């Protein structure tokens, strides 16, 4: 599926829509360069899980945990060299665990991603405009 959003709020709204069809164990891989809108999209997912705490970029903390309908693990791999770094901090256990994992810069840990991963590729089209491609097993039928 492919979408175009014209504002930050539209990206949050799309995140909410995707968030509403996620289940325990869902893994979302967010790709797209700096300021593509990955953290913004994650704010929408958090809202749909009933999380009221503000969602901030986990660039320095690497993993942020929020308690919602399901636990949400917001992960940022920007500062990781690769899969070994991720395993060293136990990220594989979260990815294959019971919460929902939303992973920014997921390209860095590609081989750790399960085959059921929902892939979200974000591109900057213009100031304020983003192209968002979403692919995932059986997702089409749910949206
Ligand atoms: N349509 C849009 N959707 C999302 N963000 C938008 C849009 N238009 C403009 N923006 C702006 O782009 C920025 C996106 O920032 P955000 O932190 O979500 O990006 P990111 O992909 O997480 O970046 P990083 O790689 O640094 O983590 C925000 O400043 C937001 O206001
Ligand atoms: Mg971010």
TrEMBL record:
The lineage of its organism: Bacteria, Pseudomonadati, Spirochaetota, Spirochaetia, Spirochaetales. Its main location: cytoplasm. GO terms for molecular function: ATP binding; metal ion binding. This is tRNA threonylcarbamoyladenosine biosynthesis protein TsaE. It is found in: Cytoplasm. One of its GO terms (biological process) is tRNA threonylcarbamoyladenosine modification. Pfam families: TsaE. Belongs to the TsaE family.
